[in-house]
Amino acid sequence: QVQLVESGGGLVQAGDSLTLSCAASKVYARWLSMAWFRQGPGKEREFVAAVSWSDNNKYYADFVKGRFTISRDSAKNTVSLQMNSLQSDDTALYYCAGGGVAGQKSSDYVYWGQGTQVTVSS
After folding, report:
1. Which H or E element spans position 117?
2. Residue 50: beta bridge partners?
3. If you ran DSSP here, which 8-state letter would residue 112 be given?
């Protein structure tokens, strides 16, 4: 059974920064791709960013506009999301996901974490 655990969420003010982390189970040494999705109150899950594990290619949703950075650590089997200049509409439950293709659809991923809450006050 694959386990993904997110951490780093919290309550911040607009303009602040947060870094989210996702840790994979120790028994799994490789991933083809990992990604971050988010789901705000009353909204559907949406793509945020993805990274290809083998070549470190990165992909971002258009709304990020240079504010977020996804990074991988192959040695620790972790992926992080550095979020700068946070806004109120960034408030959401952020999910880590793993799969074979670094796509932008939730169906591109088969492994999901439990989510970590990010709340941004104005």
Report:
1. strand 116-121
2. 35, 59
3. E
